[in-house]
Amino acid sequence: MQINFEDERPIFVQIADGIEDAILTGAFEESGQIPSITELSVSYKINPATALKGISILVDEGIIFKKRGVGMFVAPGAVSKLRDKRKELFFDHYIKKLIEEAKKLGITNEEILGMVERGYQE
Fold first, then answer.
1. pLDDT tier at 89 (50, 70, 90 boundaries)?
2. Which parts form a coiled-coil structure per UniProt (predicted)?
């Protein structure tokens, strides 16, 4: 996980996204422990409150949970929740725009599907 201080996204959002990515790629397994607030703040040289805010997003979404006195852990079913969330975001941010542009250009459904297949092959 990397923090880009030049990124327009707030640091706490980057923390949450980075942990989500790590869960999706298997770096943090379901029911496994994630780095503590202190570890995150020291590793990335950020304020602990900023790290906590990023973690809190994931707690609120049910992606991670706290075991009092032990630490933070990836919730069972987190991978499935994250995939569903990211698929919906993918549709909203990419597919809708793709279809909008395709309509302007007169590209048919079949042509779009062909382009997507070509993209997977390249």
1. very high
2. none
Give exposure, 33-66, as e/b (b: 16+ Cβ within 10 Å).
Answer: ebbebeebbeebebeeebbebbbebbeeeebbee
- Tokens coding 64: 């991670």
User: Do 54 and 14 touch, CB atoms closer than 8 A?
Assistant: yes
d(CA 19, CA 17): 5
- Helix/strand/coil percent split, the chain, to 5: 65, 5, 30
Mean pLDDT of 106-115: 94
Contact between 48 and 38 (Cβ < 8 Å): yes
- CATH numeric code, 11-78: 1.10.10.10
